[in-house]
């Protein structure tokens, strides 16, 4: 793992554990991409891949065809207006209204460590971790703009982290109209593109399609990373599976509007870019000011999607999630949302707590409806005062009673919002994002607060913090239930209105930073109408995120498969809920709901007081399983064995201990099918030479047999049935 510059060949070489990334400087000016792939011992001969010996040649030899050079050169950071007609990363308008920009190589710096990005979530080196950073400093002297291209590597992670800092080095203001974070130019290999797509209650389904000529994008202009598309894109060689094929992936450490785009251009090259979406974005840079883009995580895998997933999981566990809960067992919680919706009071909550305690549940989370006069979703957001009609004596009294029952206590907030029917809105209508003279669009009867304003951030922070200071609260579910419209801030000057969406996200980050600083032991779970803001940015603040409002065990298979493609299982908020399922109306066995929820943080979302004694016994058994497997789910290596999305019959995943001493396998027979039959499940990540006992039986299997032959999951009667198998090295 190292970053070096070879002066003779003019090449920067970035090495991670198993990959190399090469950058060359052509003509002394142009920073170009040479190679990303399997690790190379040296960069000998690589410079030719910049194709500077081919026509149209570099501009110093052939100025008259500079445009042809610009339109074919594999730029590390593409810019608009100088002849590269492919997707650009950077577009800048000068005070005079001109729009061309060409930052060229000036100098570089290689140093140990990884800089913190002010105000932004970012991967980091923990104390004692080795990391190294390359800065390539480029300048456009004509408009006075410096672009610092940053690349970092960690000793133990197979990823390259990229971001860009843009500095106005001139005397007049500049306007950034587009400032993406990363670009990679590859030669076409008949790539397929993989993205995660969906909707509310159907988040992060894996979608593949061939990369044909033209542009393919995943994006959000909704103000959050969104349910619909995900700040992730991978290019894969055709037919890539879990174990085979080459994968080039980008994942954005950001929670707002984003653009991920790939483009196959006239000469079959494929460019992939990622960054803040240029729509609804413009940033004014005064002389001397700088703009930092959020970072993009780049991963190359030569062993299919599985290796990419495990690389990202390790990176996020090792270098992104900061919470003290990262390696700790999370409390098994029960949330009252699907149990009561808005219809609850202290007595009801305490009743739930009592039964929950008996079943082995450890925390009660009070969801929406405890503040202002909120008895439906049409009022009171912004008025964070306890509704004493529901909760006499306020939170101190309620928390005391819940704790007396032996449970810790958690609470729901939606801090970024305001209801038109609220004291806050009546007092400060201008605190809502809206455009003067235009009736603002409501969504779930609410508006978004203008978090670009420091006084609004302060108000929101104090509202949340005051509640947390008032009682012994161990957990917060931070929700965000509507997307942006009517982008207008009463405070920003006209030429800065384009900054609102990004400033808003910076406000969210500031709020959560303040929260985890003042309450370091708080377990924070992010949420946005389910999984509408499930992204690496939020993971920097909260170790877990609610995956989806769809808690149906079968729907969750696809949602959790897509989520686990990128995120460690310990991040995925997953609960057992009631049947028929409140979203899709399906009935699934209680056991299956438990097995699927065990794939994530684990908890309950139902009225336990209404369950039968038999069901309560089942909860006890599920909680036993949770305690038995939690360390594996949280720390192990994840392998996707079969996908119901692909085979339409069954689903299977495995988590193996990193030391190969044990593995837990979950198998769901979604549809028994007409020709009901047992399935051979070929496991991964075991010690070939070891023997493993299937827990609860006397059966012993060779590691090789489990991996190459497989273990038989016998057919069971009926649909939606599941089982968990635990193999322990003997
Ligand atoms: C969102 C969340 C739910 C619940 C409701 C409360 O939809 O995703 O889990 O908290 O809000 O209004």
Describe this structure in words.
With 730 residues, the chain is α+β, with helices and mostly antiparallel strands. It is built from 14 helices and 39 strands. Strands 6, 7, 8, 9, 11, 12, 14, 15, 19 and 20 form a 10-stranded antiparallel sheet that branches. A 9-stranded parallel sheet has the order 29-28-27-26-23-22-21-31-30. Strands 5, 10, 13, 16, 17 and 18 form a 6-stranded antiparallel sheet that branches. A hairpin with a 4-residue loop joins strand 16 and strand 17. The radius of gyration is 27 Å and the shape is globular. The mean pLDDT is 97. Bound molecules: alpha-D-galactopyranose. Alpha-D-galactopyranose binds next to loops.
Major sheet: 10 strands, antiparallel
Number of helices: 14
What overall form do the CA principal axes indicate? globular
- Estimate percent helicity: 10-25%
Rg is: 27 Å
User: How many β strands by DSSP?
Assistant: 39
**What is the typical, i.e. mean, pLDDT?**
97
């Amino acid at each position: 793992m190292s970053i070096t510059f070879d002066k003779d060949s003019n090449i920067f070489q970035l090495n991670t554990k198993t990959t190399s990334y090469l950058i060359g400087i052509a003509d002394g000016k142009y920073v170009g991409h040479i190679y990303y792939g399997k690790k190379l011992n040296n960069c000998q001969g690589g410079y030719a891949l910049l194709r500077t010996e081919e026509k149209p040649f570099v501009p110093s030899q052939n100025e008259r065809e500079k445009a042809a050079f610009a339109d074919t050169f594999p730029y590390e950071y593409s810019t608009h207006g100088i002849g590269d007609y492919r997707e650009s990363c950077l577009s800048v308008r000068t005070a005079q209204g001109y729009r061309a920009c060409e930052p060229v190589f000036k100098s570089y710096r290689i140093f140990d460590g990884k800089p913190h990005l002010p105000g932004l979530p970012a991967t980091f080196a923990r104390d004692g971790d080795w990391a190294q950073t390359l800065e390539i400093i480029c300048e456009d002297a004509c408009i006075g703009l410096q672009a610092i291209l940053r690349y970092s590597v960690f000793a133990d992670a197979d990823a390259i982290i990229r971001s860009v800092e843009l500095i106005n080095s001139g005397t007049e203001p500049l306007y950034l109209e587009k400032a993406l974070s990363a670009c990679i130019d590859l030669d076409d290999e008949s790539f397929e593109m993989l993205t995660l797509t969906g909707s509310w209650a159907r988040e992060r389904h894996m979608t593949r399609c061939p990369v044909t000529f033209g542009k393919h994008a995943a994006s959000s202009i909704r103000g959050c990373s969104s349910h619909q598309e995900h700040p992730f894109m991978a290019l894969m060689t055709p037919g890539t599976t879990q174990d085979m094929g080459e994968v080039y992936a980008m994942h954005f450490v950001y929670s707002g509007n984003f653009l991920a785009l790939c483009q196959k251009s006239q000469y079959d090259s494929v460019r992939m870019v990622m960054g803040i979406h240029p729509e609804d974005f413009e940033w004014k840079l005064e002389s001397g000011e700088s703009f930092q883009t959020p970072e993009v995580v780049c991963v190359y895998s030569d062993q299919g999607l599985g290796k990419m997933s495990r690389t990202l999981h390790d990176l996020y566990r090792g270098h992104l999630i900061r919470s003290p809960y990262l390696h700790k067992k999370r409390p098994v919680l029960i949330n009252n949302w699907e149990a009561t919706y808005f219809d609850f009071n202290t007595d009801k909550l305490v009743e739930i707590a009592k039964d929950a305690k008996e079943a082995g549940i450890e925390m009660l989370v009070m969801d929406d409806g405890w503040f202002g006069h909120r008895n439906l979703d049409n009022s009171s957001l912004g008025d964070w005062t306890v509704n004493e009609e529901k909760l006499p004596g306020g939170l101190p009294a309620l928390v005391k009673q819940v704790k007396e029952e032996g449970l810790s206590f958690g609470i729901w907030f939606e801090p970024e919002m305001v209801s038109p029917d609220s004291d806050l809105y009546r007092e400060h209508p201008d605190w809502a994002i809206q455009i003067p003279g235009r009736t603002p669009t409501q969504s779930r009867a609410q508006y978004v607060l203008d978090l670009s304003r420091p006084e609004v951030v302060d108000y929101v922070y104090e509202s949340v913090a005051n509640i947390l200071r008032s009682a012994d609260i161990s957990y917060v579910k931070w929700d965000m239930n509507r997307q942006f419209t009517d982008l207008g801030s009463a405070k920003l000057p006209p030429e800065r209105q384009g900054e609102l969406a990004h400033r808003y996200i910076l406000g969210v980050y500031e709020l959560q930073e303040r929260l985890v600083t003042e309450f370091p032991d708080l377990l924070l779970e992010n949420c946005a109408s389910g999984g509408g803001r499930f992204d690496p940015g939020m993971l920097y603040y909260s170790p877990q995120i609610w995956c989806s409002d769809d808690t149906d065990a079968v729907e969750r298979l696809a949602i959790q498969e897509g989520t686990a493609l990128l995120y460690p299982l310990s991040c995925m908020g997953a609960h057992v809920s009631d049947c028929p399922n409140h979203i899709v109306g399906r009935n699934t066995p209680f056991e299956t709901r438990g097995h699927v929820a065990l794939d994530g943080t684990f908890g309950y979302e139902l009225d336990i007081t209404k369950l039968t004694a038999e069901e309560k016994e089942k909860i006890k058994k599920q909680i036993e399983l949770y305690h038995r497997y939690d360390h594996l789910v949280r720390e192990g290596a994840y392998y996707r064995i079969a996908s119901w999305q692909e085979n339409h019959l069954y689903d299977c995943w495995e988590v193996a201990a990193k030391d190969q001493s044990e593995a837990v396998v979950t198998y769901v027979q979604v549809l028994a099918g007409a020709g009901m039959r047992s399935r051979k499940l070929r496991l991964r990540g075991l010690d070939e030479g070891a023997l493993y006992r299937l827990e609860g039986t006397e059966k012993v299997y060779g590691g090789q047999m489990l991996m190459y032959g497989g273990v038989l999951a016998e057919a069971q009667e009926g649909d939606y049935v599941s089982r968990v198998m635990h193999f322990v090295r003997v």
